[in-house]
Amino acid sequence: MIGLAAAVWAALGTVRDPELDEPITDLRFVSACTVSGDGVATVRLRLPTFFCAPNFAWLMVADAHDAVAAVPGVTRVDIALDDHFVAATINEGVAARAGFVAAFPGQAQSELDELRAVFLRKAALAGQDRLARPLVDAGWTPEQLATARLGDLPPSSDLDRLRQRRAEVGLPHGPDAPLLLDPDGLPISAEQVPLHLRRARLTRVGIEANGHTCRDLLGKRYAI
Fold it and tell me: What is the DSSP-derived secondary structure letter of residue 99?
């Protein structure tokens, strides 16, 4: 089962914290992952605090379940979140494939698709800073940045990441797509470039700062 275990771990690596836009495996949110001889995948998840937002927690547990269940050779998924104030509700709801609203009757008003889209748009905005910042440092003008297309940029992991985030939320992501877009997918004019890049920078810094905080809290909570 070594090969299957590796495939399950790789699948978990595709699951991201929606706010931090990082894989749960890199964030060390996966505390245990085993696969039995008959293909039962057992996964345990943990979060930085006891009171992490239930909607974020639900997304990660549900996404992890779906990702592992899709691995060829996995016969059953046993996934659970530990040490969280609504862990039992989340675990039962995900196992039953009930949906967030059904799992939290009278509390949740809608499913979490729009919340996921909001954070994907933020991740796409932050990704523009990663790609545009070196161009600004190299002397590109607002006019050049406003007319730059994704296909004009050299291949990189940051470019792949931006394209994936845009694709997931339905924003232009092909080679002819503008480098700079607002969260609704509208192009940025040369006059708007300075303010847009400041917003992109602040968004990126905020996401990365939250990531550092979560890592610190998780490390202190579990002494890792």
Answer: -
What's the first-to-final CA gap in the chain, in angstroms? 27
DSSP 11-26: HHTT-EETTTTEETTT
Cα(4)–Cα(145) distance, integer angstroms: 45
Residues paired with residue 78 on neighbouring β-strands, in sequence order: 42
Burial 114-143 (b: 16+ CB within 10 A, else e): ebbeebbbbbbbbbbbbbbeebbeeeeebe
CA distance 48 to 149: 38
Tens-level pLDDT at each residue, the chain (224 residues):
569 999 999 999 999 999 999 999 999 999 999 999 999 999 999 999 999 999 999 999 999 999 999 999 999 999 999 999 999 999 999 999 999 999 999 999 899 999 999 999 999 999 999 999 999 999 999 999 999 999 999 999 999 999 999 999 999 999 999 999 998 999 999 999 999 999 999 999 999 999 999 999 999 999 99
Strand 16-17 relative to strand 22-23, pairing: antiparallel
Sign of CA dihedral 28, 29, 31, 33: negative
For the whole prediction, is pTM greater than 0.90?
A: yes
C-alpha distances (whole Å) from 36 to each of 2, 9, 43 are 10, 14, 11
* Residue type at 220 in one-letter notation: K
- CA dist., res. 190 & res. 192, Å (int): 5
